Amino acid sequence: MYTTVDRGPDVHEPSIPDEWELVVGLEVHVELSTNTKLFCGCANAFGAEPNTNVCPTCLGLPGSLPVMNGAAIESAMRLGRALNCTVSPSIMARKNYTYPDMPKDFQTSQYDQPTNHDGWLDTPEGVRINIERAHIEEDTGKSTHVGGDGRISSAQYSLIDYNRAGVPLLEIVSCPDIRTADEAKAYVSELRGIVLALGVSDAKMEEGSMRVDANVSVRPRGSDELRTRCEIKNINSISSVGRAIAHEANRHIDLYETGERPIQETRHWDEEAGRTRPGRSKENDEDYRYFPEPDLTPLVPTAAELEAIDASLPELPGAQRAALAEAAGIEPTEASLIVERGDAGFALDAIAAGGDGARVVVHLNNNLAGGVGKLTAELFAGLVNMETAGELSSTQTKEVLAEMVETGGTAADIAAAKGFEAMGTGELDGMLDELIANHPDEWARFAGDDEGESKKMAGFFTGQIMKATKGQADGKVVAQLLNSRK
Amino acid sequence: MSVAKPAAFGDATAIAALVASGDRTAAAVVDDHLARIAEHEGDVHAFNLVMADDARSAAAAVDEAIAAGETPGRLAGVPVAIKDNMCTRGVPTTCSSKILEGWEPPYTATVVDRLVAEGAIPVGKTNLDEFAMGSSTENSAFGATKNPYDLDKVPGGSSGGSAAAVAAGFAPASLGSDTGGSIRQPASLCGVVGVKPTYGAVSRYGLIAFGSSLDQIGPFTTTVGDAALLYEVIAGDDPLDSTASPQPALPVSSKLDAGVDGLRVGIITEMAGDVIEGISGDVLARLRAAADALAAAGAVVDEVSVPSTVYGLPAYYMVAPAEASSNLARFDGVRYGLRADGTNTAAMNMASRTAGFGPEVKRRIMLGTYALSAGYRDAFYGKAQQIRTKITEDFDSAYENFDVLLSPASPSTAFALGDKTADPLTMYLNDVCTIPSNLSGHPAMSVPFGVGDDGLPIGVQVLAPMLGEVVMFQVAAELERAGA
Amino acid sequence: MAEPDSQPALSRDEVAHVAKLALLDLTEEEIDLFTVQLGSVIETAHDMNNLDLEGVQPTHHPLGLTNVVREDVVRPSIDRAEVLSQAPDVEDDRFKVPPALGED
Ligand SMILES: [Zn+2]
User: Fold this and answer.
1) How far is B356 from chain A (nearest CA, A)?
2) CB 3.0 to 4.6 Å from B457: which of A272, B188, B191, B366, for a disulfide?
């Protein structure tokens, strides 16, 4: 599986003054990629014609009833177990509130008996964030606000498409354990990696199949109090997670420092303006009147089911990073990108096939961002071997690699076809003799005691050789040669 | 004035046999019933909609199928009336509410599909208390239904239209729904058989919900045998209803002739006179007479206390409105039904609901919203759900020593129109004998057993353990024989 | 623990608040009437306190079924035209509603 991680544009996050500490909990909604919706047999598909994936149940028509999608429960439990949660008997509950894109005017969710609870997630940097619960609920339809300047507040009317209504969601609620905006981003990114590794969702923030709400408060560093928090909604990318949190925290700090205090409320992140704004007042004054959903039965997983789920879990990103780091002799954090892209298995296979770990990691990080294409781990290892043996320069290697991805050919064949003959040391020796004769001053500076000068002149001679060989010489071999003559 | 059905008009079993054998056409059967409707419906107002054309073409289709040699269904050519809270595709389904006036569902309730699959012919959608909330059918937005035995009296409710339709001979069978007695109490008042199956025995898919954990669909008929036939057709698992019992319909016809020799029958002490007040003397007299008749047929009859049933009424009036408040939230003017003007969505929602719901529905939505609201949920809704457990446990202990229980179905015979509309609490007391079975989920049915001092029908309620319908029908059949 | 008789079981303000939650626009007269009527039902409900319910589990499902689930297999959806034909207002194959105010 290949995906890029959306880290968003690299916009600077406001920093937090040292005397203040962030207290953040995240609520992440993940749309489960089941074939059908949570309570009916309508297709769970993104981008269909409006109101075509609908039926009496997901339109909330009078008299309709829900029937639970077994696959959604299984996905939820798999994700729960991957987040180290306890999976318990659970019941669905009705969360009563009215909104036009919610067909029944209540959301079928879980309340005091969620499927998953009390887990944790370790970020790549080793920070453990506890997870309070990960519960199953249904998605709403989609409203389009028409007229005015596109803002809801100035719209003339709204149009509703219920295709998304009833799509299964897992809401993962972290404890307020997050202390920096970076930790929040790392948490979301790691969670996304786990979701992708499990294959339970495509977790695309830009399409809304993964959505993040942040509960943000601040406190004087060193204190353990919990101050008034605000819930920030409408965060659309991982980089926005950091910006929205940092912005909101600074808003709180400014209020405290001017003798005011924030009020508990729901706020919306405005990506363009780079600030949060108060939500509709109703969101802040709800009485959800939860009660157990009488139309659905309790879910009681058996021990055998749970064992089967545990046994079926794939290797998760944390373990993949550790394994690759071990095999390649790198730090686990250096393996992050490859793991995020889903290439850890490929990397391990290439190393197992004899490829040099460090070079395998470098190529995957830098030269295979677009995917491995027709390249196999064995062919890749073959290429890396030619490179480390000095038979190909790094420039040549890169060029051959690009073609291998396209065609699936062997490194040797492609290098031969391109005329990339290994440049022998003898040939290079002769070239160097000629260069030294033509540039005696430069050579003296290279051989002298001034390290800076020596480095500069090494670059000069290497450049000259590369120019003469049209880049076919191996930089490492040239460097060795220069040093041996010093 | 009485427009009650003449005895010789034919029950469902008889009609189906005649149609199946080709001795009578479904078309003729339907025409007879439509003629009777045309004659008396103006007095009774059992229907929100008479489906005359649909019924005639359905009858023609049944006749054609039989002529073509297809196996006739078990209800071939039997006219049935459907309570207007069950969805019928393309046919208006209103719940007797202005908020759903003219709504044509895009799908059909499982029970209606099952009836039609066996050759039954829907002849109309029957009147009810709006959203099944009431005990007299006076809470209909489209006018009250009258009791065919006395047009100045109520038919009971909420399935008053379905009970009256059968009593008036508009159809030999009908479907009602029972959340707190809405089948059994009108059956008692209209002198017909009315069955509330075990919760989950019959699919609720397509039944517009009132109290989801209490609602159950069941038949009205003139005979216990017909009720058993209807039950067997509509009961059984439905993949569209998660709460449906995962087994086929119970064979309730199997023991109708078995008698009651040796069966243990318990009269519920709390409903036999002293504990629960307000049960009239003639009703209690018919209860005793029924018990005597069963004893004479060999049953062992005794009294048994089911103490927590006295808490049924307050528990019910928390649970049912609570669930209703949530079930009826969807009537918001967005996707179907009445929309009133509003400058924004919330204002439109509120205006639509305010204009569309009648006073009793508003009252129950308010009550249920309160019972679930912050600070009150545990004290009201929570306690009520615990009381259900208590009632179930008390019933279960009684069933350790008894095969069935006996009680009145309604505290009185039919009362005058307008008599109890002023005070909701007085009206709520009508359900005092029937509510406990909804709270526990046990089956119960009302069987006509004579008349009261006013000459109006009285039903006796037979109650049975969970999925104990076979013995319930067995005892009901004996009462029918004894009362005949 | 029944409410003392002197105190109404339900205040007028509570009725008005509940009406808002229930999205009902009640007249002053209706609020007065419901305060009395709902109050009397709620008083009756206090009878429930006479029963010892310590440790009694609530009944949410009379039949006590668990794990009723379906296969994750797509079933045909229903005809859009049929659904939209019942809607009060439609535009571009979607349900049309007045604007949602008070939101940003
Ligand atoms: Zn659907």
Assistant:
1) 15
2) B191
Pairwise CA distance, residues B233 & B354, whole Å? 39
Domain boundaries, chain A: 4-310, 317-417, 425-485
Q: CA of C14 to nearest chain A CA: how many angstroms apart?
A: 13
Q: Are A167 and A208 in contact (CB under 8 A)?
A: no
Higher pLDDT, residue C47 or A479? C47
Residue of C nearest to B351 (CA): C25
Q: Which residues of A touch C93 (CB under 8 A)?
A: 49-51, 161
Which of B 112-141 lie inside 8 A of C, CB atoms? none
Cα B112 to averaged position of ligand 1 atoms, centre (Å): 21
Q: What is the DSSP string of B138-190?
A: TT-TT-PPPBTTBTTB---SSSHHHHHHHHTTS-SEEEEEESSSTTHHHHHHH
pLDDT (tens digit per residue) in B412-422? 999 999 999 99
pLDDT tens, position by position, B76-132? 999 999 999 999 999 999 999 999 999 999 999 999 999 999 999 999 999 999 999
Please answer whether residues A22 and A181 qualify as being in contact, where contact means their C-beta atoms are separated by less than 8 angstroms: yes
Beta strands A106-110 and A92-96: pairing type? antiparallel
Residue pointed to by tokens 């998760």: A316
Ligand 1 centroid to A204 CA: how many Å? 23
For tokens 């039950």, name the residue.
Answer: B231
Global pTM? 0.90
CA distances from B17 to A424, B258, B310, B466 (A): 103, 23, 45, 32
Ligand 1: centre distance to CA A42 (Å): 4
Please calculate the CA angle A164-C88-B352 and round it to the nearest 5 degrees: 100
Kindly give, in sequence order, each residue whose CB lies less than 8 Å from that of residue B53, ignoring residues fewer than 6 positions away: none
User: Which structural domains are found in chain C, ordered by start?
Assistant: 12-49 (1.10.20)
Whether chain B has a CB inside 8 Å of the CB on A262: the answer is no
Angle at B430 between CA B41 and CA B270, to 5 degrees: 140
Q: How many domains does chain B have?
A: 1
Distance from residue A454's CA to the centre of ligand 1 (Å): 74
Asked if B85 has any chain C CB less than 8 Å from its own CB, the reply is: no
Contact B83, B177 (CB under 8 A): yes
Do A65 and B106 lie within an 8 Å CB cutoff? no
Alpha helices, DSSP H, located in B89-151: 110-117
Query: What is the extent of the structural domain holding B56?
Result: 12-252
Asked if the C-beta of B251 comes within 8 angstroms of chain A's C-beta atoms, the answer is no
How many H helices and E strands in chain C? 3, 3
Give chain B's residues under pLDDT 70: 7-8, 484
Q: Residue A16, SS3?
A: coil
Diameter of chain B measured on Cα atoms: 70
A104/chain C closest Cα distance in angstroms = 14
- What is the rounded distance in angstroms from the CA atom of residue A245 to the CA atom of residue B1? 77
This complex has an ipTM of 0.97
Which of B354, B370, B428 is nearest residue C38 as measured by Cβ atoms? B370
Tell me the β-bridge partners of B125. B49, B82
Stated length of chain B: 484
Are B242 and A67 within 8 A, CB to CB?
A: yes
The CA-based angle B116-B409-B366, given to 5 degrees, is 80
CATH class entry, domain A425-485: mainly alpha
- List of chains touching C (3+ CB pairs within 8 A): A, B
* Phi, psi torsion values for A107, nearest 5 degrees: -105, 130
Residues, chain C? 104
Mean pLDDT of all residues belonging to chain A: 90
* Ligand 1 midpoint to CA B177 (Å): 25
Residue A175 · residue A130 · CB < 8 Å:
yes
> What's the CATH number where B192 sits?
3.90.1300.10
Q: Which residues of A touch C80 (CB under 8 A)?
A: 49, 51-52, 54
